[in-house]
Amino acid sequence: MKNQVKISPSILSADFSKLSEEILSLEKGGADMIHVDVMDGHFVPNLTFGPPVIKKIRKCTKLPFDVHLMITQVDKYIKDYADAGADIITIHPEATNNLSQSIDIIKSCKKKAGVSLNPETSVELLKDDLLKKLDLILIMSVNPGFAGQKFIPEVLDKVKFFRHKINNNKLNIDLEIDGGIDFKTAPLSIKAGANVLVSGTTIFNNTGSISENIKNLRKS
Asked: Is 80 tagged catalytic?
């Protein structure tokens, strides 16, 4: 059975001077959720959104906030992002000393929990006992930190690996991919088993309208 494809536009590529309008355009354009890339300048070499900004834009839409934490000492800040309005909180194994415990913190905030794997991160970090706790697995198809990078095709093997695991064990986990997702790489990602596509540059900076770009990514 083919998975229904969801689109999670990354507002990292939006026009920050009119962020509320951009988010409204995504909602009207058929986005399934809003992807919020949180960077602290330490875990990755860039700075983006903190909890106060997320709290403000939370008022702009009822769409779920898919919040991707690329920050160090992640346990200290999970509750802040949960309180700000995150619906899904995704963390990196490298940002915590105890991944299982960090997932439990997310769950204690009554939020969905995700884990993100960088291109060089082994799939073996996500053991079966951890998988059972997760709502989302995010496969990075670029090295995190900046928008507009080139897709790394080798990560599709990870997507296939986790799609097989999810289906075989009948797990209710979304399999998301983020980085260089455009009209050429989206069909490759979907074929490999991803059912959530994160895309920023293609949705906001392509020649078509936001709604056309979302539609074309979904039907890839």
From this structure: no
